[in-house]
Structures are given as structure tokens and as C-alpha cells.
Amino acid sequence: MPRNRSLPPHLEIRRAGFFWRRRLPRSLRDRGEAVSDRPDKQSATRPKKVFLCFSLRSHVLRDAKILARRLTEMSDLVFAADAETTMAIAPEVQERLLESLARFEIEALERMRAVAAPRSREAAAQDQGRHGNPP
Q1: Is 89 helix (H, G, I), strand (E, B) or coil?
Q2: How many CB atoms lie within 10 A of CB 87?
Q3: Region Disordered: start and end of each range (predicted)?
Q4: 28-55 pLDDT, tens per residue?
Q5: Looking at CB atoms within 10 Å, which of 15, 95, 102, 120 has the fewest?
Q6: Res 131: pLDDT
Q7: Which strand (E) or helix (H) includes residue 23?
């Protein structure tokens, strides 16, 4: 399925709501397992693709975009530090770090929404109109 270009990178919409999904770079992938679903030699030596995938627990596009940008920037920093070999952290620890930070960001946004004052009808209609949905 082609990616929706109106959404930020790594943001997907599914029936359950918005998800953030990002493939881990080769340096963080598990190199010990070989893909064995195809009998040819080339696929057996190719490492499998590993993704981080998190439900953003939201159906609101504005909140999902904010959170997706935060998660993308955070993962970009970790991946860049790993590529520059400035981060002396094992790949397993980096993956756990990214998962923990992503879960923290999602939980923080949920708490922020829970304590925020309700929006007025006018503000909600304006947000809908901005995203191309009729009120």
C-alpha cells in the first residue's frame, strides 16, 4: 500500500488509529537470524527488516502529527549518533532506549490531553477545516 504523502514520515493511519512505524537501521538489526522463508542463497543471507511500531493511541490528526514528529526527531538523533560512532551503546540497549522514550512521549501526550481544557466548537471546526475535513 503506498504511503499517504499528506502525513509526516513514519506516521500511518489504521482502523485502530494512528501508528508511528520506523525501520531500524542495519546497525541496530539483529544480525544473528537469517531469513529462511525462501530457499535461494541471496535471501538466506539478507538480514530481516526490523521495525519499531507504536500505537499513538489517538484518532486526532493534529496530535498524531505532533507526536510522530517528536518520535522521528528523537530516533534520528539516536541513529545519527550510532552512525557517527559517538554513542558507545550496544544495539540492544539503543533499541530499548528508543522504545522507552517512545512510550514515554506517547504517555506524556495522553496525560497532557487528559488535563487540557476542552476545545470550543469553533476551535474544533477550525482545526477540521485546516485539515481538509468539512465541519
Answers
A1: coil
A2: 16
A3: 116-135
A4: 664 334 334 444 555 555 557 788 899 9
A5: 15
A6: 58
A7: strand 17-23
Report the mean per-residue pLDDT for the chain.
78
Kindly state the cell numbers that stand for 86: 559517538
* pLDDT of residue 14 exceeding 70: yes
Residue recorded with cell 534520528: 76
- What is the C-alpha to C-alpha distance for residues 64 and 72, in angstroms, rounded to an integer? 12
pLDDT reading at 91 higher than 70: yes
Q: What pTM was estimated for this model as a whole?
A: 0.68
Dihedral, 117, 68, 80, 93 alpha carbons, nearest 10: 80
Closest to 17 (Cα-Cα) out of 133, 106, 130: 106
Tell me if 69 sits within 8 A of 29, measured CB to CB: no
Please compute the mean of the pLDDT values over residues 89-106 and round it to a whole number.
87
- Report residue 120 as a C-alpha cell: 470550543
Question: Could you tell me which of 4, 8, 7, 1 has the C-alpha nearest to residue 75?
Answer: 8
CA 76 to CA 66: how far, in whole Å? 15
Instruction: Give bridge partners of residue 21 from the DSSP assignment.
Output: 53
Outline where the chain has alpha helix (H): 41-45, 61-83, 91-115, 121-130
Q: In what order do the strands lie in the sheet containing 51-55?
A: 11-14, 17-23, 51-55
